[in-house]
Amino acid sequence: MRAEDGGARLLLPPRAEPDRLVVRLAQPAGAIPAEIAVAAQSADGRTLARIVIPVAAGTTGAEAPMLLPPELRNRLSKLVIEGSSSAAGVVLLDERWRRRPVGLLAGDAVVAGTPLTGQLFYLRRALETSTELREGELAALLSREISVLILADRVVADGPERELLANWVAKGGMLIRFAGPKTAERPDTLLPVKLLEGDRQLGGAMSWSQPAGLAAFAATSPFAGLAVPAEIKITRQVLAAPGMHLADATWARLGDGTPLVTHATRGAGQVVLFHITANADWSDLPLSGLFVDMLRRLVELANGVTGGDEGSTQKLAPVETLDGFGQPGAPSAAATAMTAGELARTAAGPRSPPGVYGPETARRVLNLANRMAMPAAAAAIPGARFEPLGGVPPERGLAPWLMAAAILLLVVDMLASLRLRGLLGAAAAMALLLLAPLAQAQAPQLSPEENPARGTRLAHILTGDPHLDTIARAGLVGLSDYVNRRTAAALAEPAGVEPGQDDLSLYPLLYWPVTADAPPPTGQAVVALNLFMANGGIILIDTRNGGSGEGFAAGAEAALRQIGRGLAVPALAELTQAHVLARSFYLLSEFPGRFNGDAIWVASDQDRSNDGVSPVIIGGHDWASAWAVDGQGRNPYATIPGGTRQRVLAYRFGVNLVMYALTGNYKGDQVHVPALLERLGQ
Q: What is the mean pLDDT of residues 94-106?
């Protein structure tokens, strides 16, 4: 007999695709299907996402997609098999698995996307498979996290726009600019080199010169190692003014030595200029694969990947390595520095342990799964019989039955003894007299946990998804603890309820997380929910996708419309600072959860029969994840993008929500107006 081999699992490096990471694992073929949970974590250990990979019986591996918004994907540090205590269950991630957000902006937005001639046409085709492309006005692009901004023949005039762009570059952004007629006519000051007015024409009926080719890239250029096709020709360019530092600022040249690409450092960021247009008007470069490679090198450089190319000779020293249990620590004395190419070809071992290598600007990781044989089951012992553990019937404890039989025999023996002595009638009467008050005293008393009426508690609607229900309960546990520590309220342990089956009148507030596959509530549940709202209860409906697009809760908006059809939801309006909910305990101007940014909706009219309380509050900020605490009292889910401050505000919104549910429109009374104005400094 031998044990199942399915537990020896190896997490493989994920496959990066334009809109997702495909998480992969390998294992020996097992006779029993399994579901393996994999958590995506940031550098500080917070879980940013979680997926479950189904592994069919008899298979040696499986994979599943992990959909993440670019902001979260770029924060990932590792993937971990939940419950694993081995380095085989950990995969470290570096820049190769990240999608850097790139903004595109043209001088003439109307024709910028015209096929074959538009300024943005070739830029989109070159970058759409490897980056997250964004387009819009300059202020809107810079209001979000962005790594690279590309301006195609767009002049940046002096004023607020130029100051905004210069500050963004100084803080570490990379600005890539392409020349054109507008740039040649009116060069601005946000360029890496000073330009001569006008442009230079190479070839044509009115020119003595011929179109120029590209020179080989210098070893110090970020384009070093890229092959230069001979068929690429440049017909027009803007010229840089001669200067003593022009040679150092040049990353690419034409065959005659004039600059094609120049750069300059501005604070912590860089400005790069292509002296040609982004379309094929001035050159053949946008039509070639070299154009794609050059842009990708620059995008990688924007995030500090200056030594990540496998052809680099830069030695990357180990910074942090994993032990056999998958825990990070300082590298041992035996660990040696290697180049990026050596890391890609080397199997993990004593001198090359799995971990993080290189300085902060050129990090590469080595994983245990690199060049490692896939796990396979050992050969069975000769003569052994294979018996899957799943087919073994469970053991049954006989101790309670044997103890009951012994007590029964003791009672029979006692009754027989009393009968033989003629004392059975008197003994029975005495026993009844003694046991009657004892039985009354031992009448079952429900504990506060078993009787929801004993204590005030919050509740969440059970969705049928065990993971989501666990998060909802952990969130309400964390919120209840915070409310108990910060206010005079005394909340008991939260509960999970099913409308139509449980009595909802015992709870002042219901938290309802919406899932994409949530079925519409039954008629009995709709009646119970409408009665709950009509009698003063509040339902907080959370689609869990606010501020993240559809990255974490795809389909939740459609599911919300489906489940809300039968509910008596009043006309809604956006929640503002003027609403009582914004001042029921704390004075709040925003109401974040794990995410922030989207609108929150409440009843537009105050129903006097319900004390002016909105019976329903709808949002998508994933409040339960922000409130959640684990068994050690830690917050397992990151709040994005505000971190600790955003979590504090999420808790404060939760306190306001509880006070709003418990006290109604109390803080809307005019008696509170002077104190509120004083606190607001008005």
A: 84
